[in-house]
Design goal:
CATH topology of the largest domain: Glucose Permease (Domain IIA)
Number of helices: 7
CATH architecture of the largest domain: Distorted Sandwich
CATH class of the largest domain: Mainly Beta
CATH superfamily of the largest domain: Glucose Permease (Domain IIA)
Shape: rod-shaped
Structural class: alpha+beta
Radius of gyration: 54 Å
Number of strands: 15
Order of helices and strands: HEEHHHHEEEEEEEEEEEEEHH
Helix content: 40-55%
Number of domains: 3
Largest sheet: 8 strands, antiparallel
Distance between the termini: 157 Å
């Protein structure tokens, strides 16, 4: 049996046959375009026949087509080259324009940076002048035992590095160094002021905690609250440790200042002299040695008596030996007592300010004449009031001298004796 061709092979044969037919048709068409031609030329009575074969015509046509294509290709290539060069030139001009624009913007930024630095310097000048006007000259020196950082050396190296790398930012680096120096100086001031207040309270035998202050910062966090407003010095929300330390030092100073403000600090009566001091004396009734637990301020009957510090009135009434008496509590364990009053001008539970009138001078109780008996008590024990009145820096020398008792050093106010307004 004969093998029958496969359909795929049959199709390929048909395609080849059709291709050969198309090629043959194309050749026939080209042969029709270029048939053999004869040209008759007459020259000087002679006739010449010039025959141009189809092959020669085809070669000539092919050469002309090649030349034409070469020409067109050359023109096209030249046009592409010119277009490319034009595009490069345009891009170059665009880059030059961007560079010039960028340089002008950099110059503008530099001028703006100088302006910002100048504004910051003026603001820092203002801050330092206002601070100096209210607090005095801030300490720049470091003392042994202080834990405040000193960034002067680090800041100097930073300024040198920044000035060498980005000269335009040198002034800004100097401004930052000045700001850090100010922060550290203010921290030293707060620490030293807090230390003085703490030392004074300890000298007076007062626990800062009993007045709402603390040797380590705030009084406590058992009664605090409110919305959160986070503070930060950097863009990432963090706080520079030097600024955090400043905040802690100012908080501690503020707490101790509040505690100091609650200590007896105002002269409780307007008096020309002290009739009896604190401690040992001759009793005005028995004329024997006795202990006097306060200061006696001689004054006219009915003269006002003032609260020596802010606090709450916790007692109004009579006590044995004291007569009409008012007690003001300034903190847990710290009480001032005002005795021998002729009248009360306060009531229990009343919040009083330092210097507020709470009563009037009298001679009730165990007394030889009109005067105020003034006591300071810590945890129920009487303490000499004089150091409290001397402790405040704004207490005048006149008040200090008027607050002196018989045991005071030379230069103190005279003692008028126990027989004229004492108990």
């Amino acid at each position: 049996m004969l093998n029958k061709p496969k359909p795929q092979q049959a199709g390929q044969r048909v395609a080849r046959v059709r291709l050969r037919e198309r090629v043959a048709a194309t050749r026939a068409r080209i042969d029709d375009w270029f048939p053999d031609r004869e040209f008759i030329m007459r020259s000087q009575g002679q006739v010449r026949f010039i025959r141009v074969s189809a092959r020669a015509q085809k070669r000539a046509a092919t050469g002309i087509a090649v030349l034409a294509l070469t020409y067109v290709g050359s023109i096209t290539t030249l046009a592409l080259i010119r277009w490319h060069d034009s595009r490069d030139a345009t891009a170059l001009l665009s880059r030059q324009a961007r560079v010039e624009k960028a340089e002008s913007r950099v110059a503008a930024y530099r001028r703006n940076l100088d302006g910002v630095t100048s504004d910051l310097q003026r603001r820092q000048d203002f801050i330092e002048k206002v601070t100096q006007a209210h607090l005095g000259v801030l300490p720049r020196d470091s003392k042994n035992g202080e834990t405040v950082t000193n960034s002067n050396s680090e800041a100097a190296r930073t300024i040198d590095k920044v000035s060498a790398t980005v000269p335009e930012a040198g002034n800004l680096a100097r401004m930052e160094a000045r700001q850090l120096a100010f922060v550290e100086s203010l921290t030293r001031y707060a620490d030293r002021r807090a230390a003085r207040g703490l030392a004074m309270m300890r000298k007076l035998g007062v626990n800062p905690g009993m007045l709402g202050g603390s040797g380590g910062g705030e009084a406590g966090n058992d009664a605090m609250g409110g919305p959160l407003f986070a503070l930060s010095t950097d863009a990432d929300g963090s706080i520079d440790p030097r600024f955090a330390r400043l905040g802690a030092s100012l908080s501690r100073m503020s707490a101790l200042d509040r505690a100091m403000s609650r200590m007896p600090q105002v002269l409780p009566a307007s008096a020309d002299s002290i009739s009896s001091g604190f401690g040992y004396r001759s009793d005005p009734f028995t004329h024997h040695g006795s202990f006097h637990p306060g200061l006696d301020f001689r004054g006219p009957l009915g003269a006002p008596i003032y609260a020596a510090a802010p606090g709450i009135v916790t007692f109004v009434g009579q006590r044995s030996g004291y007569g009409n008496c008012v007690e003001v509590t300034h903190g847990p364990g710290l009480v001032t007592r005002y005795a021998h009053m002729s009248a009360f001008h306060s009531h229990v539970g009343q919040q009083v300010a330092a210097g507020q009138t709470i009563g009037a001078i009298g001679s009730t109780g165990r007394s030889t004449g009109p005067h105020l008996h003034f006591e300071v008590r810590i945890d129920g024990r009487p303490t000499n009031p004089r150091p409290f009145l001397e402790a405040r820096s704004y207490v005048s020398s006149k008040i200090v001298s008027q607050s002196a008792g018989p045991a005071a050093a030379a230069g103190a106010a005279k003692d008028t004796g126990p027989d004229k307004g004492s108990d």
